[in-house]
Design brief:
Oligomer: single chain
Mean pLDDT: 92
Shape: globular
Order of helices and strands: EEHHHHHHHHH
Number of helices: 9
Structural class: mainly alpha
Strand content: under 5%
Subcellular location: Cell membrane
Keywords: Cell membrane, Glycosyltransferase, Lipoprotein, Membrane, Transferase, Transmembrane, Transmembrane helix
Function: Catalyzes the transfer of the diacylglyceryl group from phosphatidylglycerol to the sulfhydryl group of the N-terminal cysteine of a prolipoprotein, the first step in the formation of mature lipoproteins.
Strand order of the largest sheet: 1-2
Helix content: 55-70%
Number of strands: 2
Protein name: Phosphatidylglycerol--prolipoprotein diacylglyceryl transferase
InterPro entries: Lgt
Length: 265
C-alpha cells in the first residue's frame, strides 16, 4: 500500500474566497490549450489566427462548464433533478460530467463556426489535441480532492482515501485516468495531427481512444453510489456513455479517409 499524500484540496485562500485544486486545474487546462492553439495557428498556413484561438477557447470554456454541469444532473442525478429542478444551479455542491461537457463543447464549437464561417468539424479537429490536457489535469484535481476513487484492491500501489467511509485500500483510478485520458491521449492526438489529416479524422481518434480508455478504467473505478451498476453486476453509466463514442470515432475515421476532404481557408 502507498500512503495517500496529505494535500490540502484548497490551493489558494484569499479571505472568504477558496480556490480548490480542481478548479485551478481547469484554469491551467484552458490556458495550456490557448498557448498550444496559438502555436498550431502560427503553423496552419493561414487557416487560424491567434484571435480566433482566443475566441474559440472562451466558447469552449463556456461549453465545458455549462455542458458539464447540465450533463452531470441529467446523466447522474436525474431523479433528484425531477424532485428539485433548482439543484441544477447548486454549483457549489460540485458535480461535472465529461460527457455533458463534451456535448457542451460541440454545441459551443457549432456556435463559433457560425460566427467564423468555418466548418464545425474543422474546428473540432483543431481543438481535439488540446482537450486531453484539461482532462488529465482535472483527474489530478479529483485525486488531490480525494474523490472518484477506485474499487477495493490489494495491489501494492493501493491507497486509502481519507473521505472513504469504509477506509479500504483502493485503486487510485484518478491517476489511471490522468495517465490514459490525459498523457496517453494527448500524445496520440498531438503526433497524429502533426501533419494535416482529412476532415473528421482527428475528432474520430479523440472519440475512439477516449472511449476505450474510459471503458477500461471503469472496470476498476467505484461506480457512482446513486446509480451503482446499471446491468450485469459490472456495467457502469460511464461505460454506457462511452461506448457510442468508440463507435462514432470509428465511423468518423472511415468517413474521413474515404472522403479525403481537408480544411479550407
Amino acid at each position: 500500500m502507498i500512503a495517500y499524500p496529505d494535500i490540502d484540496p484548497i490551493a489558494v485562500s484569499l479571505g472568504p474566497i477558496a480556490i480548490h485544486w480542481y478548479g485551478l486545474m481547469y484554469l491551467i487546462g484552458f490556458v495550456s490549450a490557448y498557448y498550444l492553439g496559438v502555436y498550431r495557428a502560427k503553423r496552419s498556413d493561414g487557416l487560424w489566427t491567434s484571435e480566433q484561438v482566443s475566441d474559440m477557447i472562451f466558447y469552449g470554456a463556456m461549453g465545458v462548464i455549462l455542458g458539464g454541469r447540465i450533463g452531470y444532473i441529467l446523466f447522474y442525478q436525474f431523479p433528484s433533478f425531477l424532485d428539485n429542478p433548482l439543484m441544477l444551479f447548486r454549483i457549489w455542491e460540485g458535480g461535472m460530467s465529461f460527457h455533458g461537457g463534451l456535448l457542451g463543447v460541440i454545441f459551443a464549437m457549432w456556435m463559433f463556426a457560425r460566427k467564423t464561417k468555418k466548418h464545425t468539424i474543422d474546428i473540432l479537429d483543431f481543438v481535439a489535441p488540446f482537450v486531453p490536457i484539461g482532462l488529465g489535469l482535472g483527474r489530478l484535481g479529483n485525486f488531490i480532492g480525494g474523490e472518484l476513487w477506485g474499487k477495493p484492491t490489494d495491489v501494492s500501489w493501493a491507497m486509502i482515501f481519507p473521505g472513504d467511509p469504509l477506509q479500504l485500500t483502493r485503486h487510485p483510478s484518478q491517476l489511471y485516468q490522468f495517465a490514459l485520458e490525459g498523457v496517453a491521449l494527448f500524445a496520440i492526438l498531438w503526433f497524429f495531427s502533426q501533419k494535416q489529416k482529412p476532415r473528421y479524422c482527428v475528432s474520430g481518434m479523440f472519440l475512439l481512444f477516449y472511449g476505450i480508455f474510459r471503458i477500461l478504467v471503469e472496470f476498476v473505478r467505484e461506480p457512482d453510489p446513486q446509480l451503482g451498476y446499471i446491468a450485469f453486476g459490472w456495467l457502469t453509466q460511464g461505460q454506457i456513455l462511452s461506448t457510442p463514442m468508440v463507435l462514432l470515432g470509428v465511423g468518423l475515421l472511415i468517413v474521413g479517409y474515404k472522403l479525403q476532404r481537408y480544411p479550407q481557408k
